[in-house]
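Section 3.1: Structural characterization of target chains.
Under the original work plan, the team committed to producing a structural model for every single-chain target entering the pipeline before any wet-lab resources were allocated. The record below documents one such target. The sequence was received from the expression subgroup and is listed exactly as submitted; it comprises 70 residues.
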Amino acid sequence: MQAYYTAQIQRRGEWWIGWIKEVSGVTCQERTREELLETLKVTLLEVLEYDSQEAVRQSEIEYEEVKIAV
C-alpha cells in the first residue's frame, strides 16, 4: 500500500525549500526542484522508519498492532 503526503515547496532565490505538511520535522533545501523532491522523499522515509522503530522500543513486551483508516 502506498501512502501519499503533501510537500509544500517554493523557490527562494537560488534555492528550493520545502517541507512535508503532515509530518513535523521534514524540511529540506536543495538547488533544484527535482533534487528537493527526492530529498524530501528520502528524509520522510527516514523519519517514518525512525518513528516506527522508536514506538516499538517504547512499547511493553506484549503489544498489538491494529490498522486504523482515516
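The helical segments are 33-58.
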